Automatic annotation (TrEMBL):
The entry's keywords: ATP-binding, Kinase, Nucleotide-binding, Phosphoprotein, Serine/threonine-protein kinase, Transferase, Tyrosine-protein kinase
Entry protein name: mitogen-activated protein kinase kinase
Annotated Protein kinase domain residues: 300-472
Catalytic activity: L-threonyl-[protein] + ATP = O-phospho-L-threonyl-[protein] + ADP + H(+); L-seryl-[protein] + ATP = O-phospho-L-seryl-[protein] + ADP + H(+); L-tyrosyl-[protein] + ATP = O-phospho-L-tyrosyl-[protein] + ADP + H(+)
One annotated GO molecular function: ATP binding
Pfam short name (any one): Pkinase
Enzyme nomenclature, EC number: 2.7.12.2
Residues noted as binding ATP in the record, renumbered to the chain: K329
Length: 472
């Protein structure tokens, strides 16, 4: 891009406002603190920043959960919604609203269809008419539409709760279809409790949702139109990335997946088609509590490859504005389901361990040409390489004091995982213990970690066999 070139368009993104006029609390799983009243201050700050941008955003993507479900029992849903809508009214750009589970905790689908949260009037209709019949003839239509902010670009809003038991009443065909499917996979009395603590079956919960066949057929028509017109497509909804190369980061540990009625995850051809429409993205880089940066791939200078695996490569890079050197894990968009699970588990652990000095730190992530780039703290070497250097190159031994420090740091990292995250590592080996020139020792590679249930670890044949305990 030329130095003085102007962008074709810009847009803002905000999600999970979850406003309620109540004291601070925690989420359903008691793992994250919620600041309910302060969320309005954050919305106002975002609005002020958007309005002050030299290039005004063309639109805002509001990704759902605009007010919290706690409003419903207090009968404050409409008042809370009015408060948040007033915050959005200060913004010069129009907002496109996605619907999440908290919208349906507070309101019925009929109410939402007739509310200010229905932004379907912003849909682009002049360029594309061929698939309108798909949803218009549906007695239970989804809340989905598309728009084009500039030539060769299209945004699609999907209804992630099209199949769900929240928001639709009992006479609904989709309600009964969703309830039947949930009960087939979740035998718990409380359907908000996952049937299993880890793995793909976590998706089968009441607060989740999915895409109907009708909506996916409609999406297929939109993508066909985009293909024929060489458009780049961005998909938005109250849903985390189904594939690592989707165009709507960030990836989070709470990722929810589609209620796929085929029973085979990630095989829907309509969803797979989105891979061809991945676009560049920017991200947030948090190097320290005081250092926060908006960044793109152009802000990173590649200093060379330092490792390679089945998922892709690890490169040493420097963030040019801050001069921070880091390790960037470049994950291919074609990773299979097993690799994806391990990558998400690894990312989940490091993102939730920012307060532990014995675990490698996560800085941020972005998308580049369909691949996901994960920026991590760069260490100098691993324990296995350090061992070989001391014994082979120096013909020496590692002092007991150093071995003690390595052992202590490793145990403290494992204790943090167990006590704070209810996780066991399951792949402790020298190559997963990292050291730097300042004497810091940190644990890494949590891809096959296991979740603790009632303080008991689920055991299975997992880990690197040469380092596994011998079982008679």
């Amino acid at each position: 891009m030329e130095e003085n070139a102007q962008p074709l368009f810009t847009f803002g993104v905000i999600a999970d406002i979850q406003y309620a006029d109540i004291e601070d609390g925690f989420n359903f799983l008691q793992t994250r603190k919620r600041y309910y009243r302060n969320s309005i201050s954050l919305l106002n700050s975002a609005t002020e920043k958007w309005n002050a941008e030299p290039v005004q955003p063309s639109f805002i993507l509001q990704l759902g959960d605009i007010i919290d479900g706690f409003n419903k029992p207090r009968k404050t849903s409409e008042k809370a919604l009015e408060t948040v809508v007033n915050g959005f009214s200060k913004c010069k750009a129009k907002a496109h609203h996605a619907w999440g589970n908290h919208e349906f905790y507070n309101f019925s689908r009929t109410y939402l269809m007739n509310s200010v949260l229905n932004s379907k009037h912003l849909e682009s209709t002049s360029e594309f008419q061929s698939s309108k019949h798909v949803e218009e003839n549906n007695p239970e239509p989804s809340y989905s539409y598309h728009f084009s902010p500039a030539p060769n670009f299209r945004f699609v809003l999907l209804d992630a709760y099209d199949l769900s038991i929240i928001g639709r009443g009992e006479p609904s065909r989709k309600y009964y279809q969703s309830l039947k499917y949930l009960r087939e996979h979740n035998k718990n009395k409380n359907l908000n409790v996952p049937p299993e603590p880890t793995g793909m079956k976590q998706q089968f919960v009441e607060f989740n949702g999915g895409f109907s066949r009708e909506q996916l057929d409609w999406l297929n028509d939109v993508l066909t139109f985009a293909d024929n017109n060489q458009e780049k497509v961005t998909v938005m909804c109250k849903r985390k990335a189904l594939k690592l190369n989707f165009a709507n980061p960030p990836i989070k540990s709470t990722a929810r997946f589609t209620l796929n009625t085929s029973g085979v995850p990630f095989q829907n051809p309509h969803i797979e088609r989105l891979r061809t429409h991945s676009i560049e993205s920017s991200g947030k880089l948090k190097i320290s509590p005081e250092q926060h940066w908006d960044f793109t791939a152009e802000d990173l200078k590649d200093l060379g490859e330092i490792g390679r695996g089945a998922y892709g490569s690890v490169n040493k890079m420097v963030h040019k504005p801050s001069e921070q050197i880091m390790a960037v894990k470049r994950i291919r968009s074609t990773v299979d389901e097993k690799e994806q699970k391990q990558l998400l588990m690894d990312l989940d652990v490091v993102m939730r361990s920012s307060d532990c000095p014995y675990i490698v730190q996560f800085y941020g992530a972005l998308f580049r040409e369909g691949d996901c780039w994960i920026c991590m703290e760069l260490m100098s070497t691993s324990f296995d390489k350090f061992y070989k250097y001391v014994y082979c190159a120096l013909d020496d031994v590692i002092p007991e004091e150093i071995l003690g420090k390595i052992t202590l740091a490793t145990v403290k990292a494992l204790n943090h995982l167990k006590e704070n995250l209810k996780i066991i590592h399951r792949d402790i080996k020298p190559s997963n213990i990292l050291l730097d020139r300042n004497g810091n020792i940190k644990l890494c590679d949590f891809g096959i970690s296991g979740q603790l249930v009632d303080s008991i670890a689920k055991t299975r044949d997992a880990g690197c066999r040469p380092y596994m305990a011998v079982i008679d």
